[in-house]
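Severity: low
Component: inverse-folding endpoint
Summary: output formatting inconsistent between runs
Steps to reproduce: submit the following structure tokens with default settings.
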């Protein structure tokens, strides 16, 4: 048996007016933002769920209940740092992270490397261990009509 563990995460948030659009810890100027209890950073949430899954920590709803006022408006990078600490405590190192944002608009290409750098910095890994990509959904469904954004992430952990 190897010490490798894979995890998958998925998350969705609604897009509304009057909220910031935070993705991978980057504040992206746009007319709509993501609605949620925290900063609603859907990409970071998917990454946290993948990490939690790989380490068998359950999910972020269990780790950070949205009924807890301590998490109201909190930066998801702070939550990610907490998950990173839990992994460290359990002797897990992140091998790599691959995340995909599903969004019709805006174009996030110019922000990708900053997102990768943010996620890596918070987890204490190198930027080359993190890949962020994005796809539109050809105008189909809730991501296609910009009523929401979704994100998937897969991660690989290694037991140290
Ligand atoms: Mg979420």
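Observed output (run 2 of 3):
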């Amino acid at each position: 048996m190897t010490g490798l563990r894979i995890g998958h995460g998925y998350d969705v948030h609604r897009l509304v007016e009057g909220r910031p659009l935070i993705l991978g810890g980057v504040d992206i100027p746009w007319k709509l933002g993501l609605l949620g209890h925290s900063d609603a950073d859907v990409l970071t949430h998917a990454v946290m769920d993948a990490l939690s899954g790989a380490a068998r920590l359950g999910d972020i709803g269990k780790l950070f209940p949205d009924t807890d006022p301590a998490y109201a408006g909190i930066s998801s990078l702070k939550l990610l740092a907490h998950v990173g600490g839990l992994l460290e405590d359990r002797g897990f190192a992140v091998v790599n992270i691959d995340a995909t944002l599903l969004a019709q608009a805006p174009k996030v290409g110019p922000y990708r490397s900053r997102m990768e750098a943010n996620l890596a910095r918070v987890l204490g890994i190198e930027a080359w261990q993190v890949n962020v990509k994005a796809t539109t959904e050809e105008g189909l469904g809730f991501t296609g009509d910009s009523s929401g954004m979704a994100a998937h992430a897969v991660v690989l952990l290694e037991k140290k």
